[in-house]
Amino acid sequence: VSKESLLASISEHKGYLYSSKLNLIQQVNAKAEFATTVFLDTDVIARQPLDGFIRLLEQDTFLMYRQEKAYARESRKEYWQALNRIDLLGHRIDSQSSQWNSGVVGLSGDHRTRLLDAASIMDQLNEAGVKQHTLEQVALSVVFEHTGRLQAATDWFVHYYANKPAWKPIADELETLKQQGKSLPALTAWFAA
């Protein structure tokens, strides 16, 4: 991925910085040689073998890191109000619909139409003046949750998303375990404690 393509993506989506994540997912999903698309933020660690994760993807399950607060229950309800004003392109939300964390995004097969819908929803949220940094996350949540096949990936991954104070002890412990010749399950057990 070149700096130029990232800047073009941001420009295409009216300056929204995190549009590049959705564009990268779209680019990989559109390539015929890839049956499965998995996107991981740089602050994600696999905590166990991914066999079960892959099995779910093969069953056409959509995976995102975890479900977060329902839009209707947000304190400011900014997303809830905006999502009820814009064109969701046939996708539906209700009072139980939630934002899902996009630190992990997994999908199998050709979902170009859904991803185009997500890009349109993201752009509409931006145009509606939503001042958040998770527009692409909300857009993916809307189109995947609507299928009824969206599940959390927390069994397989740990994502620190902006929890910088937690990173230092994890990094230190990982280095200690590495020096002791221990495996990732030892880190997982330490992290879960």
Overview of the molecule:
- The protein is α+β, with helices and mostly antiparallel strands and 193 residues long.
- It has eight helices and six strands.
- It has a four-stranded mixed sheet, sandwiched between helices.
- α2 (19-30) packs antiparallel against α5 and α7 packs across α8.
- The longest helix is centred in the middle third of the chain and has 16 residues, at 112-127.
- The model has no long low-confidence stretch (mean pLDDT 88).
Q: How much is the average pLDDT?
A: 88
- Within the largest sheet, what's the order of strands? 1-4-3-5
Order of helices and strands: HHEEHEHEHHEEHH
Total count of strands: 6
Structural class: alpha+beta
- Helix % is 40-55%
- Radius of gyration equals 18 Å
For the largest beta-sheet, the strand count, sense and barrel status come to: 4 strands, mixed
End-to-end separation in angstroms reads 38 Å
Can you give me a brief rundown of this structure?
With about 190 residues, the chain is an alpha+beta fold. It has helices at about 5-10, 20-30, 50-60, 80-85, 110-125, 135-145, 165-180, 185-190, and strands at about 35-40, 45, 60-70, 100-110, 150, 155-160. About 45% of the residues lie in helices and about 20% in strands.
What's the helix and strand layout?
Blueprint: H1 3-12, H2 19-30, E1 36-40, E2 44-46, H3 51-58, E3 62-70, H4 78-83, E4 98-108, H5 112-127, H6 135-145, E5 150-152, E6 157-159, H7 164-179, H8 184-192
Parallel strand pairs: 3-5
Antiparallel strand pairs: 1-4, 2-6, 3-4
